[in-house]
Amino acid sequence: MEATTNKPIGEFQTAQEAIDWIVGRMEKLGMKPGLQRMELLMEKLGNPERRLKFIHVAGTNGKGSTCAYLASVLQACGYDVGTFTSPYLVRYTNRMQVNGEDIPDDVLLRLVNDLKPVVDEVAETELGAPTMFEISTALAILYFGKVAYPDYVVWETGLGGRLDSTNIVNPIATIITNVGHDHMDILGDTLEQVAAEKAGIIKAGVPVITAVEPREIWQVIEAKAKEKKATLYTLGDQFSLSRVESQLDRQSFQFSGPFRHIPNVTIGLNGEHQLKNAAVALMTLEVLRQYYACIVDDEDLYRGFEATRWPGRLEMVSQEPRILIDGAHNPEGAATLAAALQNVYSYRKLHMMIGMLATKNHTGYLRHILPLVDTLIFTEANFHKKGDAAMLADLARELLREMNREVDIVIERDWKQALHVLTSRTEQDDLAVVSGTLYLISDVRSWITYQTDSDKGW
Questions:
Q1: I need a surface site. Which of 72, 94, 128, 337 has the fewest CB within 10 A?
Q2: How many CA atoms lie less than 13 Å away from 102 in the CB half-sphere?
Q3: Span between the terminal Cα atoms of the chain, in Å
């Protein structure tokens, strides 16, 4: 009689091998926008996405925290909630969770071993090899549709919307948080073009919730919603918020929508922008309640909003010295960060460490930050698309001359050394801030919190 073993069936023997295979495709294949490979993958897998209720979330900023609010409240209401978000802050498995728990390593290994032959089949067609993000999206759908079966899936786009691999699903609600200057090298030269790409997730008859402004960009969303006969709920039109209270780690607002008024909703996330994100999430919950008989008791709603946390955004990761991390990496994100630094936090001196990707709008970002800082340390993320620290420093000096302002600028390419410089300069009443690409934020957060390096990937 043959001895039985628990050896995994398939090409990969460990979860880490499977993850390395997926993440390794980023540098080999990069991004290839389009849905044909995803359509073929789903067809070969039996279209598991059709069994799930998706809330599809796009936008330049605020996607992650809006997803976090939705997941927190739905969970508080007793529903099982899947989330698919990117990039991840510590481990690859963070990106696909059910009720806040990562996909288990043994499940990931089994599903990737099932997925690998299908990926190879697609790679042999004229469509070419599926990308890292396409495989990750397919893996999440397999996990939710064939293993975990959550009641709702909060489904964040990776980039844009129209040609993003997540656009393979037909959701029950669509969110476009806002439109700003990001990924313009891929999505288009104007904000209207970027808006059109994000509006590409709008589906026939599926309600759309948005906080997009100004009007000329919103009109792009409105036109697509009209074309698709999708009801549009816009912050400032169909629903509104008014701030009641704002202090560190506690804000509250009144919500008014087409179905009812909800007073004194409290959140623990900082910054005025989080009130907007919370209002968008709340309007979405109201749509689910009204259209799909989703049961949202007020007690659970209040509890879910107050319990929401979103790491890496205005997150205080150290008290001695005080170190705030924030993944602002575009002009709109920098404006939000600057507003919070002026209105929420107090300090004697502000010391800031920045690492960016090469493709971002650095000038627009720096214009918001430079008026506030006393020390600026430029570093580089441990990622293949990192921006050059010396070039960023030169740009900052040029902008400072225009502003007739002097700031102490340090260039330290090694981010761990840069973090050492930052902490050594931050005295008791000062504030240290680490900002820029989430690839840097994830490393710094892992190092400060766990004294380990993070995984790296989209």
A1: 128
A2: 13
A3: 46
